[in-house]
């Protein structure tokens, strides 16, 4: 059976290796604990009092009876405080917030990339047109798990006593709903997602399939407006999820650029990584991307830089390259975030008055406690864009080659085969107790799964997947552009005023 081919074997092997190797060898744990990240240790009360030039007072029994508890120990804000830093190790990482969720998601994404790479190489050697693309399934699962992790983080904001984070998420959600409704009415001559043709193809195929199953009078009670309203609601939800990752990206980008002021090459890569969502957004604007490259103006004439047939492959390579660049810049952004502790201390020194020692310790410790949260906020948008692009390539049946043999975007005529009945295997009989043979049950199950996937492939054609994953990739990048640019404005102007 095609379903029980080598792709499924490799997929099950990858899942087994991930489960067994996670406690011993984890890429997510290595990313934080490889010795390249340094956190700042909070000072003790003795060190703060020594800097303030006084001893730690010992409260009397009378003070404890009157106040019920010790008064907080305070020190001047302008003390000469310098934080000690130490590498982040495995013991530090295990106590961080959401560390287990972070470790599982990043490791799953790594194995998903490995399975996808294997299926791509396997597809160049063997004809896999009749097999289920297991690598694409792993990519879709990675996108879903990434959205679930963002939802977990946003739920934490909604459960918080402070209402500021909740208001920010709701504001970005309503803003994303408005922008999505505007985008969905733009003609495909300008935004070439292919949503209209993709959904129309899926609905037509579903009606044909229903009639073949005996439902002659059945029709889909869904209009084009209903579909776009539902898609706009999903876009609003994604926009709310990506609000704080974009704001955090703006803050870490500004700090990372300042931290590497003496390294112009790193600064250039940081700017490219920050502007990569803008580039991805422009790649789907037809007059700017496809039409310009196919007919680039050169004086009174025009030249063809990239043919329209090869543009889809070029777009895939550009998006994957930009995502890889952003992944390679992870350490610079995380270290810029960890340096917020020292940055806050330097800001405190410029203020007048006194501050409780416990507040200093909390401020410094809180930065390192949220390291995995910041890491998820930085990596998850990249993973969504990367794996939705990989699913766009695999399920949309595009090619990595810059000179494709056939024009992408042409879907063959619909042909829905009639499912063949499952026949019993000759030579296998029931045993004396009347129990069915296990091998026959397995083959019957595989046959039913094969029929289900065949029916699904006839309804959800490559034309549908191209439109859906193209829009998902573009919308994720657009949300990052909106939230990160607002974050730049907030940190550069509003925070300084």
TrEMBL record:
It is a multi-pass membrane protein. Keywords: Glycoprotein, Membrane, Signal, Transmembrane, Transmembrane helix. The chain crosses the membrane at residues 135-155, 167-186, 225-244, 265-285, 369-392, 468-490. Its main location: membrane. It is found in: Membrane. The keyword Transmembrane helix applies. GO terms for cellular component: membrane. Residues 1-28 form the signal peptide. It comes from the Eukaryota. The keyword Transit peptide does not apply. Belongs to the TMEM161 family. This is Transmembrane protein 161A. It comes from Gadus morhua.
